[in-house]
Design brief:
nine-stranded antiparallel β-sheet; mainly beta; 1 helix
């Protein structure tokens, strides 16, 4: 009986763990309905390698991912962005820009 409980607990932990904890790899985009001023973030693993914002590709600087893998942050010239997962292919973005009000919107991972 104890072996069955251990097996059930192990199965629960495997299936209850967020599917998105594996990484941010892929292309994330959103905010296109805001006067066409969308954002595209191209990720290689947990590193941003492309960031399109305000009609241009911007260089990214330091980036970090939370221990649980659900929050990604990085800086760019003039600001920073934080993405917080709310599903395996969805996240909420919060952009801080110097001299501008914060901008919040949802992004989705392209298939």
């Amino acid at each position: 009986m104890r072996g069955n409980r251990s097996l059930l607990l192990a199965a629960f932990l495997v299936f209850a763990a967020p599917a998105f904890a594996a990484g941010w790899d892929g292309t994330w985009a959103g905010n296109w309905n805001n006067n066409g001023d969308g954002v595209q973030i191209i990720m290689a693993g947990n590193d941003p390698i492309g960031f399109y914002f305000h009609g241009d590709y911007l260089d990214t600087n330091s980036s970090s991912v939370s221990k649980d893998g659900n929050t990604l942050s990085f800086t760019f010239a003039g600001g920073s962005i934080t993405l917080t997962r709310n599903g395996p292919t969805a996240a909420h973005a919060l952009v801080h820009q110097k001299g501008q009000p914060d901008l919040a919107f949802d992004v989705k991972k392209d298939d």
